[in-house]
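The methods section describes the discrete structure representation at length, but only in general terms. Each protein is reduced to its one-letter sequence and a matching series of backbone shape codes. I believe one specimen quoted in the main text would settle the matter. An entry of this sort, consisting of the sequence and the corresponding backbone structure tokens, reads as follows.
***
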Amino acid sequence: MRVLAAMSGGVDSAVAAARAVDAGHDVTGVHLALSKNPQSFRSGARGCCSREDAHDARRAADRLGIPFYVWDLSDRFTADVVDDFVAEYAAGRTPNPCLRCNEKIKFEAVLDRGVALGFDAVCTGHYARLVDGPDGVELHRAVDDGKDQSYVLGVLRADQVARSLFPLGGTPKPEVRREAERRGLSVAAKPDSHDICFIPDGDTAGFLDARLGRRAGSVVDETGTTVGEHEGTHHFTIGQRRGLRLGVPAADGKPRYVLDISPVTGTVTVGPQEALAVRGIDARRPSWAGPVRLGPWRGHVQVRAHGAALPASALLQADRVEVTLDEPATGVPPGQAVVLYEGTRVVGGATIEGTSA
């Protein structure tokens, strides 16, 4: 196949591209320029998409002997990922920008452009597996549970899964680094990127303040009594415990958590951990990694990137997914995704709109 290898400048995408070459594909490397003003160097494991990353990707492509290009997708990234991130926080929700980037950039903008240029598939360094099944290509969890990224790929449609390659899904991360070293790739020991790529200093609150401004409001308990003040509802997420700066301790002396965020009134409600427990999840905009599923369903769901698989039942509809967890879960914020699994297989995902006890 003609394969477009998305090369971030990290070890995972470099080894993934190398394996695509080894498999006999006609591989072209592409680095995505996602920032209008990229910093020159990374700060340890913070962020990505710096000029240093672009140079590292080019050096890896040169080592593999494949063509290499840089695609400027900064306008699309700003509109579909950064602006969406800000708007979601302004609305009191907690978005996952990596998931949105996969949906809108890596497997929509890049794949669409690649297909238009005659490429058959996009190859990335994500840790997930593709398995041939009776209904076509299936998306599955990686063998390395600690690195599994199937959750952030849960937004992919079946046609996108069919045009994807994830060469690392069957390999533990330490072996990937050893392989990079054996291949002479200079990124073998490069730190993984753990932070939001467009906030390289890690100051999410400051980033949002600069775009949304500060609007003082009250922190109240479940009775409506004011127990603190804040400088913007976008500083909070459901389930948050730290950084609440409460002036009045709880009567029972136990920690309090964010239970609700109301940007309209500027109010943040806090309360005991047990008040966070939910069993019902209402999610919208479902996408299906395989055949469209409608009607009653039974399996496991995941509600955060590194969360556990939770047994659940659901009613799957064309425009929404209504999930009922077997056991209550805590800290399930609107804006995140709920991803449905049957064993290791990803069925599909949807964006959480609301929850209920």
User: Anything to note?
Assistant: The helical segments are 11-22, 51-64, 74-90, 97-116, 158-162, 173-182, 204-212. The chain is about 25% helix and 30% strand.
